[in-house]
Amino acid sequence: MSETAVKQIVLASWPKGMPTRENFRLEKASMPELPTGGLLLRVLYLSLDPYMRGRMDDCKSYAKPVGIGEVMTAECVCEVIASDQGGYAVGDIVLAPTGWRTHAASAGAALRKLDPAVAPITTGLGVLGMPGFTAYAGLNLIGKPKPGETVAVAAASGPVGSLVGQLAKLAGARAVGIAGGTEKCRFCSSKNFASTPLSIIVHLTLPKSSQLPARMGSMFISKMSAAPFGKLYCPCSTNLRACRCAD
């Protein structure tokens, strides 16, 4: 095998506010051996998701934080470059929780095969991966929208929120997008975003409830704290269903 070293990005320090380059460190490590009954993977695409900021804090959460000096956690699209496991061959493409590194050994757990003939392999990190599954489960399995209902979508410009808007429309509901800032609102309503049918774009810091629709929503989908959205609850129907997706 021609590769002699693995490049990996580790957490160098806890960020204070927005992460900076100084919070990370690029390191080199030895190429791992092929584990018995396992796989050796080359990372092709790595994910960069909002939940990762929560993993950079040493505080109580539903998931263990990334420790100082540890490789940043991430799901990645990988190519199998060596295999000692039935069902996986060299050249197969898989989704694996390898973290931010160029190569990784895997025992074969938590892997999902990706078929390039079905969809671009990068969709494994988006619409056909965790963001897509989050959107589908939150809206269709928990929220269960009905035709004619209004679905208010927080973080509407993100990978989860933008898909929720599309799925809501497919269910016959009316989607209201909420985004934090003029640029994001413009993105949501631009012609390049026309395939996502968000019928109204509401600025996160909207000062007047009179600017909201008379009946804001039957369902509220959020990936953030509900605190900033107090103005939205006032004009909502009494049968509001609120679904929050954990980061």
Secondary structure elements and their pairing?
Elements: E1 5-11, E2 24-30, E3 39-46, H1 51-55, E4 76-83, E5 93-96, E6 103-106, E7 112-114, H2 130-143, E8 150-153, H3 159-170, E9 174-179, H4 182-189, E10 200-203, E11 219-222, H5 230-233, E12 241-244
Parallel strand pairs: 8-9, 8-11, 9-10, 11-12
Antiparallel strand pairs: 1-2, 3-4, 3-6, 4-5, 5-7
Helix pairs in contact: 2-3
User: What percentage of amino acids are in beta strands?
Assistant: 25-35%
Q: Distance between termini?
A: 38 Å
How many whole angstroms does the radius of gyration measure?
21 Å
Note the main sheet.
5 strands, antiparallel
Structural class: alpha/beta
Low-pLDDT regions: 191-201, 203-217, 224-228
The main sheet orders its strands as 6-3-4-5-7
Q: Characterize the overall form.
A: globular
| Rounded average pLDDT | 81
The tally of helices reads: 5
In total, the number of strands is: 12
The H/E string reads EEEHEEEEHEHEHEEHE
Helical residue percent?
10-25%
Report on this structure.
The chain has 247 residues and is α/β, with parallel strands linked by helices. The chain has a five-stranded antiparallel β-sheet, with no helix packed on it. Strands 10-9-8-11-12 form a five-stranded parallel β-sheet, with helices on one face. Strands 1-2 form a two-stranded antiparallel ribbon. The longest helix is centred in the middle third of the chain and has 14 residues. The protein is globular, with a radius of gyration of 21 Å. About 13% of the residues have low confidence.
